[in-house]
Amino acid sequence: MKPRTLVLVGLGFVLLVFGLVAPPWMAQWGSTAEERARTFPGDQYWPPPVSQETRAITVRAPATVTWEWVTRIGQGRGGFYSYDWLENLFGDDIHNRSDLFPAPTLGVGDTIRLTQAGYPGARPGFTALPVVGVEDGRSFVLMGWGTFVVESLAPDRSRVLVRERPRHPASAFEATVRALVWDPVHFVMERQMLRGIRDRAEGVAPDPLGGLMAGAGFLAAAVAAAILLVRRRHPAWLLPSVAVAALVLVSTGGVAAALAGFAALLVPGVLRTLLPRARWLTFLVLLGAVLLVLLAAPDAYLALGWLTGAVTMGLVVWTGVSGKELGTGLPLPAY
Prior knowledge:
This protein is of the alpha+beta class and about 325 residues long. It has two domains: about 30-200, Alpha-D-Glucose-1,6-Bisphosphate, Chain A, domain 4 (2-Layer Sandwich); about 210-320, no CATH class. The protein contains eleven helices and six strands. It has helices at about 5-25, 35, 65-70, 85-90, 170-200, 210-230, 240-250, 255-265, 265-275, 280-295, 300-320; strands spanning about 55-60, 110-115, 130-135, 140, 145-155, 155-165. A six-stranded antiparallel sheet has the order 1-6-5-4-3-2, with helices on one face. The chain is globular. The two termini are about 30 Å apart.
C-alpha cells in the first residue's frame, strides 16, 4: 500500500473514531443510566435545543471531604486538578494544589476563573464564570460550564458528577471542530479533573517518577529534532519552538508545559524535512494519534512524553542509518 493511501486510511480511521465512536463514550464517561436520566440542579439554565453530558467518578472518601476539594477549583485557587502542563502551554497560569487551603464557603454570585484576569480575551461569562446556584455540601451550578454534584454513598464513599448541556452546533464546520478538537480535549481535561479530585480526597500522592520519565521523553524528542533540523539546514524551524517555550516560562513558570510545547512545535519541521509529500495529511493523522493517546492513556503526559521521544528519535535514527526519505527509498536531498 502506498504511503499516501496509508495516510488517507489513517485519516479515515481518525474521523470515524472522533465522529461516531468516541462522542457517546466521552459524553457519559463514568456515569450510570440512572444518573444520566436524572434531572440536575441547573438544567433549567440550558433550555433546548441542547445535548447532555454526564460524567462521574466514585471516591473512597466522605462526601464532606470530597466537597471541599470540588469547591476549590479555579485559576488562582486550587487549579483544576487536571493537566496543568497543557493549560500552561496555552498561557493559562494554572497550578494545581494538593492541600486544602483556607477558602470561604462558595456562594451564589461568586466567580470561578478559568484563566488569569489579564489573559487575552478574558471577560466575565467567558473566562470568569459566575456561580448561579449552590446547595451547600451537595451541588453548585457554574454558568458557562455546568453542574457539579457530590453525593454520599456511605460514610467513607462519595460520588462526584458533572452535568453539562452544550448547545447543538450551528454549522457543519462547528460540528467538525467540536468533534475533532474541542470535545476530545475538553473530555480529557475534565476526566483528569475528576481523577484529580478523587486522588486528593483519598490522599493519594502524585508519583514524581512519572513526571520525570515524561520530561525525559519530551527532552529526548526536542534534542533529536533540533539536531535533525540543524543538520538538514532548517534551523529556522527552531524559532517558533523557542519563542513559545520562552513565553510559557515567563507567563506561567510551567517548565513541563514549556518542554512539551518546544518538542511538539518541532514536529512540523521534522515532517517537512523527512516526508517528501502528503505532509499535512500526515500531520492530521499524527494529531489524531495524539488525541487517541490522550483518550486512552491513564497519564497523558507520561504517554505523550514517551511516544514523542520514541517516535522522533526513531525517525532520526532510521533516516541517519538508511540515508533515505521516509516512504520513498530515495536518498535524502542535500540542503
